[in-house]
Design goal:
Residues 60-153 form the Methyltransferase domain. The chain is an alpha/beta fold. Helix content is 34%, strand content 20%. Strands 3-2-1-4-5-7-6 form a seven-stranded mixed sheet, sandwiched between helices. Helix 1 (9-16) runs antiparallel to helix 2 (20-27) and helix 3 (40-53) runs parallel beside helix 4 (68-76).
């Protein structure tokens, strides 16, 4: 799973026993050599799909990590791109890998559940971050994204179809989820990372409630499952133009993460 440049088992153990923020600070120098980084194939397919919807002026990479998603934004945004993450270590690596060409790039250390922006963006993307949020936190997260988008702006992220119940992949995800729950029951601080595939129906309901108009775009590069459904979809949630400032959904209070 890991390249020779990736973290050693002892390093992973130390990271897993830290908080999410501290764990990613420690992992940052080797993160791009782990399977946790979104693959180039998914990033490229997302960029192709977004080109058909753009171009955009200002883009935001939500939970940007080491900045892989910033490369996607740089391909479809004309003026500026911003990465936001709460790990100083990940942001440090992201700054180092930013090239001199393309739109103006900026980096902000902040909690995605309390974004320090007004409605300044035409596009928000996120890659592989939702496993770090508890289900009850998603409504507040989506409301935050809605708030920082201009009317007509879009929130886009790829989602892999969940594995078939009873399959080996499904069993492995359940096993990982169980290990994390046991870890958080016996060790503090908690490390929130539950990577079971998100269900499209649940995602769509929460995005609808946040005031978005939602579309699902198949990414044909990844083919289809035996039942004919796409293996990977790009979720594109639009903030309707008619929702002017102060007329969108009621704000959801953002509270600090409680220990589980």
């Amino acid at each position: 799973m890991f390249s020779p440049e990736g973290p050693r088992l002892r390093e992973l153990a130390v990271q897993a026993l830290s908080s999410v923020e501290r764990g990613y600070d420690l992992l940052a120098p080797k993160f791009d050599h782990t399977p946790f980084r979104t693959s180039d194939s998914v990033l490229d397919a997302t960029a192709v799909a977004l080109r058909r919807l753009g171009p955009f002026d200002a883009g935001l990479d939500l939970c940007c990590g080491t900045g892989a998603g910033m490369d996607v934004l740089a391909r479809v945004c004309r003026r500026s791109v911003t990465g936001v993450d709460f790990s100083a270590g990940m942001l440090g690596v992201a700054r180092e890998r930013t090239g001199p060409e393309g739109p103006t790039a900026g980096w902000v250390r902040a909690d995605a559940r309390a974004l320090p922006f007004g409605p300044a963006f035409d596009l928000v993307v996120s890659f592989g971050a939702f496993g770090h949020f508890l289900p009850r936190e998603l409504p507040g997260l989506f409301t935050q994204v809605h708030r920082v988008l201009r009317p007509g702006g879009r929130f886009a992220f790829p989602v892999v179809a969940p594995p078939r119940t009873g399959s080996l992949e499904h069993g492995m995800l359940l096993g990982f989820d169980m290990v994390m729950r046991v870890r958080n029951a016996v060790w503090r601080p908690p490390f929130v990372m539950y990577y079971r595939a998100l269900r499209f129906g649940a995602l769509r309901r929460e995005l609808d409630r946040a005031g978005f108009r939602v579309e699902l775009h198949p990414l044909p590069e990844f083919g289809r499952r035996p039942d004919g459904s796409p293996r990977v979809r790009l979720v594109v949630a639009e903030r309707p133009v008619e929702q002017q400032a102060g007329r969108g959904p009621s704000a959801v209070p953002v509270r600090p993460r409680q220990e589980e």
